[in-house]
Write a structure and sequence with these properties.
0% strand; 107 residues; mainly alpha
């Protein structure tokens, strides 16, 4: 064995290891909050009213608001609203037209 071959080490035990993401518990919590609110909107009474207010709140500064959670998770908020029946396709197209016209006026 040559002198240079003695110091060669091959590490294969951890090649397929996926590194632990420290933000995973927070993502799971935010995902659970969003899913719970989506289930609560289908219930009746005060729970439904609170869920409706949650989805209609446009505050992005509060870390647990609907829009903040969607931004953090990389989820399209309009798709969520459409899936639970709070945003119809017609309203969605009107919103996109308004936002496009606002950008056009900036130029």
């Amino acid at each position: 064995m040559a002198r240079s071959d003695r110091h060669v080490a091959i590490f294969t035990a951890f090649e397929d290891m996926i590194p632990w993401d420290a933000a995973n518990p927070e993502r799971n919590l935010l995902r659970a909050m969003l899913i719970t609110a989506m289930h609560d909107i289908r219930k009746k009474g005060k729970v439904q009213k609170l869920a409706f207010e949650y989805f209609q709140n446009l505050d992005e500064t509060y870390p647990f608001s609907f829009l903040s959670i969607c931004n953090y998770l990389g989820v399209d908020s309009n798709s969520v609203l459409e899936s639970i029946g709070l945003l119809s396709r017609d309203i969605k197209s009107e919103i996109s037209k308004v936002s496009i016209s606002e950008f056009d006026s900036l130029n």
